[in-house]
Amino acid sequence: MNRLQLFPITTTIEKNSLTIAGHDLAGLAKDHGTPLYIYDRETMDTAVIGYKSALALHYPMTGSVTYAGKAFLNLAIAQWTQLHNLFVDCTGEGEIAMAVAGGVPREHILVHGVNKSEADLESAVKYAGTIVVDNLTELQRIANLFPIPHSPFPDLWLRLVPGVAVETHHAHTQTGQHDSKFGMTSAEMMEAAQFCKMNNLPLNGIHFHQGSNFRDASPLKAAIELGLDLAMEIGFTNEWHFSPGGGWGVAYHEDELPQPDSNEYVRVIAENIVEGCKARGLALPHLHLEPGRSLVARAGVAVYKVGAIKRRGEKVWILTDGGMTDNPRYAMYGARYSCLTVSGPGEARSEKVSIAGPYCESGDVVIEDLLMPKIEVGELIAIPASGAYHLSMSSNYNGSRKPAVLWLEAGRARVIQRRETIEDLMRRDEGL
């Protein structure tokens, strides 16, 4: 069954019901309610091991793997990152605080952001090992806030806009094109490097990012060449860092199978950096990979309960208790998903349905026109590849409360984020 290949690697069908890491999803939903998110540790562990093995195979110098906090970050996830000695990419003081609370050490905290506030920068200087500088104004802000950099002080990398985007399914997931809001041009990079030299700021790296959820690594080659040219011009020597971003894809729908090969992604990056540095007489950098969603998306599954069914001619609406407030990706950029029923996932698919949530927006849709078995009110459905950019972009629209999150291992299922309550919503407010 192709759809099972979209789910965590521990997913099986036992007694005609979906199980993950040996846990029956129907039982978990009964105990914890719906909407419910689960994360499978083995799938996440396996993804990290794959990237680290590929780095060791293809890159002769030191390399590291960075977890994207923006994909999904809380206390437990931050703690898990350090079981694998990962860097954690944080955007702003909120994510920095979560990383610190989870025990991520200074040297593993990497701070991104296109318009970092003074509070963001102060937090980064206090807790982070690296700040990726997005623009000249930010660099000047750092110099003004910290005219005499103290020790320890974060390393600074400059973010390049390479002018080359990768192929993604929507313009909103592209970041490397010339008119992107992210990063600096080559000329701005050189101006920034000169500013760092004049102000004794610890510049030692280059970063770029071309897009998110892509499968073809070939556009990375031109961007790597440009980045290495700039490294030569800036004058990096033996100790420098290079991050060609990340954003490697995952399969969200059976039409997108097989899953993209992370080894091939790492190979293309490593070989082009090695060859490019050799051609320029440039020392090999410490290579930083940012796999993004490919570390965590497949590990996550969203479980919803069907509350109503509407038939409008050929259009069949399956209305569930989850939707755009826990997963806005369809509404934002038309993301495609698949799903299975929790009970009887192998039954014949006889009806084309669209799955939508309970919220007062026509864009509150999760899946359109997917073949499914005949579904009844009260059934549970499971949506795979739900581990990245769902809960981190969730909202309280219509007074919705964010769902509970479970961490699954063989023989163990524990809540790592409790379900929000009405009291949580009211606690933040002040009356007139």
What do you see in this structure?
- Helix content is 28%, strand content 24%.
- The protein has helices at 25-32, 41-58, 75-83, 92-101, 118-127, 136-145, 186-198, 220-234, 262-280, 329-333, 422-427, and strands at residues 11-14, 17-20, 23-24, 36-40, 63-68, 87-91, 109-112, 130-133, 155-160, 203-208, 241-243, 286-289, 300-312, 315-320, 340-341, 351-356, 365-372, 380-383, 404-409, 412-417.
- The chain contains eleven helices and 20 strands.
- It folds into two domains: 2-33 and 299-427, Lyase, Ornithine Decarboxylase, Chain A, domain 1; 42-295, Alanine racemase (TIM Barrel, Alpha-Beta Barrel).
- The strands form three sheets. Strands 4, 13, 14, 15, 16, 17, 18, 19 and 20 form a nine-stranded mixed β-sheet that branches. Strands 5-6-7-8-9-10-11-12 form an eight-stranded parallel beta barrel, surrounded by seven helices.
- Strand 19 (404-409) and strand 20 (412-417) form a beta hairpin.
- It is α/β, with parallel strands linked by helices and 432 residues long.
